[in-house]
Amino acid sequence: MNGTEEFQELRPLLFAIAYRILGSVTEAEDAVQDTWLRYEASPAQPASTKAFLCAVVTRISIDALRSARVRREEYVGTWFPEPVLTDSYENPERAAELADSLSMAALLLLERLTPLERAVFVLREVFAFGFPDIAPAVGRSEAACRQLAVRARRHMDAGRPRFEADRREREELAERFFDAFREGDVDGLRELLAADVQMMGDNGGKAPLWGNGAFGVDDVARLVAAFAPLFVEVGGVVEPHEVNGQSGAILRDRDGKVVSAWVLDILDGRIQAIRTVLNPDKLRHIGPVADTWALVREANRARRSTQRPDNATT
């Protein structure tokens, strides 16, 4: 196998590492591309191509994360990771761990770690790298990496939610939720939501948003039930998907363009959180993006027309 073939074979793993460190599809793809350029320019063939490439993509991702942190401090509103619909790196023996580390909740917890802690945690806890391989990847001694791993694990365990293990149950609950969504069924929604459910959106100031979010079963159920019929009225389509390893959906306009990505956090048979990504810059890798402002204007016209009294003459 030549170098190009080895790189292509390892590309899904490299992307999986970079995405979990960065929380961004576009930045992870850039990190993988930079890794290829450095590999191609390397004068000597490394003893282990996998170890070399994983170390390079980790170092590039750490540097990119440090720069990204500065930008995120200036981000407008709530920040969520860019959604992914599938995990291209497949390992059946560790599918559950990989899916958990891909979730929005886990990626948001990783945001609390320093770049070095995050990289060490991803390599050690998610991909089961040994410390002899982690140390050169992050430029620290093995002893230092062990300490970084301990601190990172402590932070993650303290905040990690425990999601339902039964995938079929999650999918059935999500199906019921989106059925109630389409119908604007407040009571049906209330049955599925936890008492302290939260609904939050990431628009980056570039798409319409429902204020600062909604909290509690009553507010969230009313908000979803008010929004959904208008969305359906203007031809919007709810396309169920697994998003970041969790039950969710991609909302599209009548032309099939992406409006938003929805992710449901499910625990104890109830939806604990609804996270929506509306920032068009975070959706372009999924497909062509809709003009959400135009969609809102159309929905408002549809609402006004249904509220307008009949003009029939006697």
TrEMBL record:
Report the superkingdom from the record: Bacteria
Q: What Pfam families is this protein classified in? A: Sigma70_r2 (PF04542), Sigma70_r4_2 (PF08281)
Q: Where is the RNA polymerase sigma-70 region domain?
A: 7-69
* Oligomeric and partner information: Interacts transiently with the RNA polymerase catalytic core formed by RpoA, RpoB, RpoC and RpoZ (2 alpha, 1 beta, 1 beta' and 1 omega subunit) to form the RNA polymerase holoenzyme that can initiate transcription.
- Gene3D superfamilies from the entry? 1.10.1740.10, 3.10.450.50, Winged helix-like DNA-binding domain superfamily/Winged helix DNA-binding domain
Query: Which NCBIfam families does UniProt cross-reference here?
Result: PRK09636.1 (NF007214), sigma70-ECF (TIGR02937), SigX4 (TIGR02957)
Q: What is this protein called?
A: RNA polymerase sigma-70 factor
Q: Which family does it belong to?
A: Belongs to the sigma-70 factor family. ECF subfamily.
Keywords of the record, alphabetical order, are:
Sigma factor, Transcription, Transcription regulation
Residues forming the RNA polymerase sigma factor 70 region 4 type domain are 105-156
